[in-house]
Known about the structure:
Elements: E1 2-6, H1 10-22, E2 25-29, H2 33-40, H3 51-60, E3 64-67, H4 70-74, E4 79-82, H5 98-110, E5 115-119, H6 127-138, E6 144-148, H7 158-163, E7 168-172, H8 175-184, E8 195-198, H9 200-231, H10 235-243, H11 264-277, H12 283-306, E9 315-319, H13 334-344, E10 348-352, H14 357-363, E11 368-369, H15 373-377, E12 382-385, H16 390-393, H17 397-403, E13 408-411, H18 418-423, E14 427-429
Parallel strand pairs: 1-2, 1-4, 2-3, 4-5, 5-6, 7-8, 9-10, 9-12, 10-11, 12-13, 13-14
Antiparallel strand pairs: 6-7
Helix pairs in contact: 1-3, 5-6, 9-11, 9-12, 11-12, 12-13
The chain binds uridine-5'-diphosphate-glucuronic acid.
Uridine-5'-diphosphate-glucuronic acid is lined by residues 122, 151-155, 211, 214, 218, 252-254, 256, 259-261, 263-264, 323-324.
Amino acid sequence: xxxxxxxxxxxxxxxxxxxxxxxxxxxxxxxxxxxxxxxxxxxxxxxxxxxxxxxxxxxxxxxxxxxxxxxxxxxxxxxxxxxxxxxxxxxxxxxxxxxxxxxxxxxxxxxxxxxxxxxxxxxxxxxxxxxxxxxxxxxxxxxxxxxxxxxxxxxxxxxxxxxxxxxxxxxxxxxxxxxxxxxxxxxxxxxxxxxxxxxxxxxxxxxxxxxxxxxxxxxxxxxxxxxxxxxxxxxxxxxxxxxxxxxxxxxxxxxxxxxxxxxxxxxxxxxxxxxxxxxxxxxxxxxxxxxxxxxxxxxxxxxxxxxxxxxxxxxxxxxxxxxxxxxxxxxxxxxxxxxxxxxxxxxxxxxxxxxxxxxxxxxxxxxxxxxxxxxxxxxxxxxxxxxxxxxxxxxxxxxxxxxxxxxxxxxxxxxxxxxxxxxxxxxxxxxxxxxxxxxxx
Length: 441
Ligand code: UGA
């Protein structure tokens, strides 16, 4: 099949390269000429494990190409995926659909024959109807049908998620779209992932409901963690104790500093807006979004408390700045709110991240960036684990203790064991687990 993917961001790039790896012929289009030039030279615009190799192999095999020329790429296409951004609209939290509608119009205008336009961007219920109206108006002479095909991949494990999905959701209101989309995913049938065919509106809502549910699960365990701290219980054991119940499941029950990233914060907000517009409010999701916002700032208060009630003129070392490990993405990362609150409280804040330094520099100009975890903690009054990169799990903690001015560690991801930290002589605070007294040396 000849597939075109419009938009070479996370979803577009990973989908395009994976479709090519299935054996389809794929062209990825983006308006950003700099990005396309880099991709043609084999330089990835994002950090995603395995993506560079996947792109290289498929480009070399002649199945994957990049261009800024949408019109040319559309000629002869069977399916065109829209994978452009849907940022939060300034001021009201609705998803901004400008790019989706614009791309749909340009695709229709360039079309040379019948084709299926499938939306992979996360779009509110009803967007497919508007896309259909746009393409019909632009090209009444052609049979262009519109499908919804939401993407559930996670940054950091995007390729694996794409190739071994828990499910594939295809929202289509006509048999031609259903047939073409089934053909796109046929190479995956060997692994037998469940494929769900639904109406377009149902498919659009599945995407938001999935992200809102996952955000709710995280927020639930985060609040339980707060209660654990008050009553002397251990949140990791509570999570395991409830997660072993198959009806609950053990995933997404890691308590932490609150969820961030380019999806959960934006998508929960957009879903809340859609629900309000339809006079069917989602009060649970509204609360989840509000609790999560407050939590990020509360993490700074936790650090201040661990430092004896004040961080004025103290140096705080933050390890991990991205919203989660294995990505360079800083969007809505908890580190941003934590740095701001600590600086407001008079602290000098330093940071280190294995991949996120470039974005961190642009987003937090006042933050002093260090070139390693050890140089970051040297002379600092506290070390704070904000993101659970593997290299922080394996730190030489004796060396860390010798480098710190005060042996204070606040672990917002529970990557160390309280008993080990107490034995090593750290004043150690984590999330939802009892703190132990420092062992006598
Ligand atoms: C999320 C969803 O997991 C994907 O299924 C979805 O496709 C994607 O959004 C999207 O809509 O595009 P992603 O944002 O890459 O993927 O990251 P997650 O792994 O879901 O993590 C989101 C946030 O939740 C991170 O800040 C992470 O640290 C936090 N989290 C996750 C927790 O605090 N605890 C957990 O147990 C799990």
